[in-house]
Amino acid sequence: MIEKFLAKELIERIEGKLQRNFGREPEDATKQQIFRAVCLVIRDMMSELWLENQEILNDPVKKQVIYLSMEFLPGASLRNNLFNLGLSEAFQEALAAYGQNIEELYELEPDAGLGNGGLGRLASCYLDAVSSLEMAGHGMSICYEYGIFKQKIQDGNQVETADDWLSLGDIWLIEKEDEKEEVHFGGKLEEVWDDTGKMKLIHRDYTTVIAIPKDMLITGFDSRVVNTLRLWQSTSPISIDMGLFAKGEYLKSMEEKHKAEVISKILYPEDAHEEGKMLRINQQYFFISASMHTLVKNHLKVSENLDDFHHHYAVHINDTHPTMAIPELMRIFMDEYDYEWESAWDIVTKTISYTNHTVMPEALEQWPENLFAKLLPRLHSIVKEIDRRQNANLLKAFPDEEALRNEMAIIHNGKLRMANLCVTASHTVNGVSALHSTILREKLFHGFYRMTPDKFTNVTNGIAYRRWLCQANPKLSELIEELCGPGFKKDASELAGLLAYQDDASVLERLRSIKKENKLILAEYIKNHNNIIVNPDSIFDVQVKRLHEYKRQLLNLFHIMDLYNQLRENPQMEMQPRTFIFGAKAAAGYYMAKQIIRLACQLSAQLEKDPAVRDRIKLVFLENYSVSLSEMIMPAAEVSEQISLAGKEASGTGNMKLMLNGAITLGTMDGANVEIYEAVGRENMFLFGMQVEEVDQMNQEGLYSPWCYSQGNANIANILELMSKGINDVSFMDIVNSLTTGFNGASDPYYVIADFESYKQAQKNVTAAYQDINRWQKMSLANIAGAGIFSADRSVKEYAERIWGIDSIYDIL
Ligand SMILES: *Cc1c(COP(=O)(O)O)cnc(C)c1O
């Protein structure tokens, strides 16, 4: 158990921090200073817990996981840490003594937005679970000075502004100057022969960048185990070249420093998309090299050599972005510790495991070989050797299948394919939902699966459900606790206890009234931010996620435009009012995604202008979708739009957060939607659209003609016409063309038009179900009750048992 603190003790501590850090008494401290003082008090408590476990953690036979990810999306930490430590009430009371409301401090905190979306959020959910399960595990990533951009909507267009999260978010970071590392870029390789006649490679003329660790402490719920998320910040060993400065070359004298610092300056804002950029390679190698050096050093503090490295560390690669861990570990073992290739390879491959997050070709990382060789010559030579040896294996395994061998090669046509390198070097490879893992085995990695079937497994994603239930939706959480006891906070499967109440009219009524209260809170937010008054009795229909064509926000907009056309034609039409809520950031350079945002915004304005429709359908585009915003939206949502083209969404996790809050999924058989369906049954969700097999068949036949569809379907033709003629006086010809004739590629590649009728019917079913209040609430309850398996605790337990080989640090060995 974690110590309890009285409000009185906390007041003393907070006052102490205010006095010593800011020279202020509470009555003349600013809100920011109080926020900082409170965080510092909590940080001290977390540090004490962290120190308590250092001895166990440094024991080389107690294995720990190192979770490598280019992205982490922790969101805000204050509320989460207080909740995990069981100190929310005590701090609330302490702050009340100053007339401070803790909610206001929560609102003050900027999100740590060191990720784009689902992938980074998953990494953060897993760290929470590792700590909550009292396991040892650390995240490693980059301390981006600017995280994911802040999105503003101006004149219906997305505008990006810099996210200066460190101005207050730095309060959670502890700089460990003494644990800094050197990272070497560029230069050339030289072969030298030592006295014993052994050839050694010497790396010369490289550029050195310093990596400084900034540690964020990660608490778990009701757990004494505090782990760290280590974020590396880049800097130069030379802050200024005095020679150049003396010559009057002022800008040049600081160039080295700027070049080094640019590495950790900003997060690439592309989600599920890669571009072969130099800075991106530098970012990856920077955090990987620093991280691997730290692991090796720490291991050698407690062990004689690196032979047992894999007993100490399970190194996990979150998507291919950290793949360089493979050649970098090989390099350190061979060049710095004199290991032979075979023994180094043996240890490295027992250490590394890999999660694939996408099958979409544009997201699979491939580096131009010549660029890679220039930036990282030694890593390039190691990857070449891995490829050479792998090719020999492939030739043995598939002597008569040249095409397959080419597909599986690590280096091919002047490109380094990171996914193939990962699969080759990992002891385990997993997808993130049952369907996605099947697609990996049967398609993307089929050759590898034939060679090494036991390597492949599935771990369905999960979420830090306490954040979206207990913290974000306290009323629902209290109701569940009252009905089922507090056990669900430790064991999400206990949510199933709710099913006992599915026919209890008073419970269903309380669920309804909680949803209504949450809708009112969101309605207030919408009024203040969008200047739109929404009807709290309308259906809150939510699609929040990154903007990507495969996620098909456009299909949702098609349905709204169709309703609009119908209402204009038939103004007397009876319909259950709906509020369509969108939240989505588009990558800054993703033209079509930005057009779709523009369409949503113009449609919103057009509907609002039209007195004949605005009381029945409304569209609200909430700007700057982020973890904190999601915590307000999920509790108020009633319909969860999960409408990606089947086979494209690896798992999704927004779908899990929404069902947990009682929203009902309207979705395709894609990603984890399939498992939601298995958990709640057909009667508790709305399924539509083509299945993966049908999509595959359509692709193979190659006969799909969206233009023909639209000719045969007046509703679709009308929608296309509306978009061409203009919505709120803006025409969307590029979107129309992308669907009908193709815009820089195939027409309607994500089958929006093909799935439209099926989607429309499913939407009709939603309305019908909603009108039966009892039925709807029962569905809602079934979704909350069935959400237990989507806990990140469950996912992490599976990783721990089946992949990493770790367990609670308190378990006797
Ligand atoms: C959960 C989450 C996501 C992932 O949403 P999907 O619907 O699974 O794509 C993205 N961004 C944020 C801020 C989230 O909290």
UniProtKB/TrEMBL annotation:
Primary residence:
cytoplasm
Record keywords, A-Z = Allosteric enzyme, Carbohydrate metabolism, Cytoplasm, Glycosyltransferase, Pyridoxal phosphate, Transferase
Quick one: a GO biological-process term for this protein?
glycogen catabolic process
Entry's localization field: Cytoplasm
| Entries under InterPro entries matching the protein | Glycg_phsphrylas (IPR011833), Glyco_trans_35 (IPR000811), Pyridoxal_P_attach_site (IPR035090)
Q: Which GO MF term does the entry hold, naming one?
A: pyridoxal phosphate binding
This protein's source sits in the domain of life called Bacteria
**Its Enzyme Commission number?**
2.4.1.1
Cofactor requirement: pyridoxal 5'-phosphate
**What Pfam families does its record include?**
Phosphorylase
> What's the catalysed reaction?
[(1->4)-alpha-D-glucosyl](n) + phosphate = [(1->4)-alpha-D-glucosyl](n-1) + alpha-D-glucose 1-phosphate
> Which residues are recorded with the post-translational modification N6-(pyridoxal phosphate)lysine?
K657
- Entry GO CC: cytoplasm
Q: Which PANTHER family does the entry link to?
A: GLYCOGEN PHOSPHORYLASE, GLYCOGEN PHOSPHORYLASE, LIVER FORM
What the protein does comes down to: Allosteric enzyme that catalyzes the rate-limiting step in glycogen catabolism, the phosphorolytic cleavage of glycogen to produce glucose-1-phosphate, and plays a central role in maintaining cellular and organismal glucose homeostasis.
Q: Which NCBIfam families match?
A: P_ylase (TIGR02093)
UniProt lists the family membership as follows: Belongs to the glycogen phosphorylase family.
Q: What is this protein called?
A: Alpha-1,4 glucan phosphorylase
Tell me which species this is from: Sinanaerobacter chloroacetimidivorans
